[in-house]
Amino acid sequence: MQAMLVSKLGDRLIDDLALVIALHPKASLKEIAEMAGVSKATLYRFAGSRESMISKLECHCKTVFEHAVADEELAHGEPIEAMQALISNYLTHNELLLYITLHCREDQIVSTSDTGSWKHYWSKLDAFFLRCQLLGIIRVDIPAPLCCEMFINIILAVTQAVRTGRTAAQESAALVEKFLMHGASASSACLHTGSAAPLRTDVHRE
Question: CA 206 to CA 204: how far, in whole Å?
Fold first, then answer.
């Protein structure tokens, strides 16, 4: 029944609901409907109460992100292509990512229990970043689980910059990949563009 409701509303509207609740956690159902651009009746057909809507959104988020990390390419495919596909998937669902980051209970997200948790999701994501480290794709001096957290927060930072007009949407995927793979160091930028590092001429020594 839930899958049918999600299908009828469409993924785009589900993402909009997630974004509205993430940014306006105390909004009423009426206010949520208005900000999401749907009628109150449509929202009530999806969920008759706020608690029901939260439960369905959390379940939908879990399904989407578990599907994102279930791709066989992450475990066995070419790692750079797999990374690019993962970035694209997360950018596509950035509203859901923001929702689970800001709204879901921390104990639920990081739980190591098998029932009703995100254990499978984190295991798959950790395994992918560990694989990238073992293959020499990303640095090994940062633990794989922390690489996962940094990856998620880079996605959130870039999508927030797009949302506020600080960067262009079409550059998002490339920016995430650059920062994730090469960091913010000027020497890394020069290494991958083939240009020399600019000399500072505005530094005066006493």
Answer: 6
Q: How far apart are CA 165 and CA 205, in angstroms?
A: 38
> Is residue 61 within 8 Å of 96, Cβ to Cβ?
yes
pLDDT 10s digit of each residue in the chain, 206 long? 444 445 555 677 788 899 999 999 889 888 999 999 988 888 888 888 888 888 888 888 888 998 888 888 888 999 999 999 999 999 999 999 999 888 765 545 554 445 456 888 889 999 999 999 999 999 999 999 999 999 999 999 999 999 899 999 999 999 999 998 888 877 655 545 544 444 343 444 34
Q: Confirm if 29 and 43 have CB atoms less than 8 A apart.
A: yes
- Give me 17's structure tokens: 């609901």
* Structure tokens that stand for 118 in this block: 């995100």
How far is residue 200's CA from residue 205's CA, in Å, rounded to a whole number? 12
- Token pair listed for 93: 């669902």
Count of beta carbons in the 10 Å neighbourhood of residue 172: 19
Pairwise CA distance, residues 62 & 140, whole Å: 28
Residues 175 and 116: their CA atoms lie apart, in Å, by: 34
What H or E segment, with its residue span, contains residue 155?
A: helix 144-163
Report which residue type is found at 125. Answer: L
d(CA 183, CA 153) in angstroms, rounded, equals 13
Residue linked to tokens 């390419």: 73
Q: Cα separation of 21 and 192, whole Å? A: 40
